[in-house]
Amino acid sequence: MALLEVENLRVSFHTRAGVVRAVDGVSFSVDPGETLGIVGESGSGKSVSCYSILGLIPQPPGRIESGTARFGGIDLLDCKDSELRRIRGKRISMIFQDPMTSLNPYLRVSDQLVEPLLVHEKISRRQALKKAITSLEEVGIQDAGRRINLYPHQFSGGMRQRVMIAMALINRPEILIADEPTTALDVTVQAQILELVRQRQKDLGTAVVFVTHDLGVVASFCRRVNVMYAGRIVESGFTEDIFAMPLHPYNAALQQSIPALHRKGEPLFTIPGAPPDLSRVVSGCSFAPRCPFAVDLCRNNAATLEEPISEHSTSCSRVLRGEVTDLRLKPALAAV
Amino acid sequence: MAFLDLRDLKTHFPIYRGLIARRRIGSVKAVDGVTVTLRKGEILGLVGESGCGKSTLARTIMQLVRSTEGEVFLEGKSLSQLSSRAVRAARVNFQMIFQDPYASLNPRMTVFDTLSEAIRTRKKYRRKEVVAKVAELMRMVGLPPNQMLRYPHEFSGGQRQRIAIARALAPEPRLIIADEPVSALDVSIQSQILNLISKLCREMELTMIFISHDISVVRYLSDRIAVMYLGKLVEIGPASEVVDRPLHPYTRALVSAVPIPNPQLERQRQRIILQGDPPSPLNPPVGCSFHPRCPFAVPACKLEVPELATKEGDRFAACIRIGEI
Description:
Strand content of chain A: 15-25%
Largest sheet of chain B: 8 strands, mixed
Number of strands of chain A: 12
Distance between the termini of chain A: 47 Å
CATH superfamily of chain B: P-loop containing nucleotide triphosphate hydrolases
Helix content of chain B: 25-40%
Helix content of chain A: 25-40%
Shape of chain A: globular
Strand content of chain B: 15-25%
Structural class of chain B: alpha/beta
Oligomer: heterodimer
Radius of gyration of chain A: 21 Å
Distance between the termini of chain B: 36 Å
């Protein structure tokens, strides 16, 4: 049974420039112990979906228009703040992109590490401190007993992200939401952090929701993937299937535009244009203006996520109707 | 004759301590002895982790920072000897593209203002000519010329980077240094800009140094790749060979740390995970600066600094154990 089940989540931001529909009808579920990747470009709504589950969207200007997020019999989107506080940091915790701005620069690491313990458990400060030191050792920080008394600026970027992970996992949560945790880090350090998350996940049986824009990280790290575009999930399935058999033109184009898979000199496939302005209402598929396979029907009829193959869904109506089977783009479509 | 010739280039930043009795307590050796030559029309990719000195090297070549030692020769003429005024005049020949198109364009200048200023650095054109040239530049980078009176905030990130590229091309330079020009952009926009850069280089026979931390981007675009670690080049060679068959242990680790967007390949490959962070350039380790993190290090690595030497044909690496590992 799914641990977390999000259904038809809609989040919008009411700004002076109009209503921005950041998340527009997103449904997904997380199984115990699994790794779910959420991949998309900036503005695709991947972070906003995760933030709103934990009640971290500033309201106003944000507003959760509809949807449910079932977690252990509670709807996280419709429960008392006190209830949410008991879950956040205890059963679901989160790590963020930039470890410098998400740690408090005024407080010693020790104070920040014991806080989730003191808040959620009946535990003395001394015991909490002992646990905190163990948790730092578990994320590979040597000499933890001494370094726990340092301030965040005395750690390097990779070490700060380790501290964040230790803090997020100190209460052994059932779900860890990781929002681009390695984007600000060097590739060699990224490899260390990914390995660490994988190891800790194995030890604790935590489910991980991994938000990223990097398809490479998804390929190496996740069991299932949701591909998001303009506030909607356009394709969802097991990682192998998403890569081996893309069912949505956006996913297909995205993969073909990665330089790693191209020989030198050969023009890169590109997706023409730019992602749509989410403050305008789009009738039909939001990718249609950039899609090489789009027909009039795509621009008029709303796209819904359906499952043509078991456990692999797409929102492309032409793929669903069987009109398009080969999503590989012709090099001639590569625009400059 | 080499088009661009860097000879034992060093850029050190002094560090002082004390408010009243200021004394020099050391220096950060950001660039520490880089020697490399580029042919005309060549694209050299420069990769390395943050803090390894890639950007300082770029700024030193641009003469935005003056080198502590060593010289930069562009088409046989030394740039390091020039006065700051002479450098400014010479800079029409070498231009730079920066990482963040949000920060590198003046928000109070329209596209026309930005580009026309750059065009006029080479020659005093008449206004009509300038307008025509601005329009031509905009078309070249794929922007509609009727938007020349707009301000940077009216453009998206990818379009802004196109403006920045147009500005760099405006004085008709022969050398372009691009410092992480696509790192701040989304994947789908990244490929548009990479295509543009590669097309322009071919058409205009530009020589380029392309800096990136992403080895797959560099491999796609460049003829040769230079790998930098703590201010020094540790490996240089033809792009595909350096990535597919790296010689230096650091290059191997760097290549293996990049996740491949292919789950099957990902599962099969051997990964080298380096321990720790890059050491501080303030007091780099003695001997080979990579030895504390190197899985192949032997005691001899601590004794001397390895020279960048020919290993096979046109490939160079700075490691004493290449033959053995």
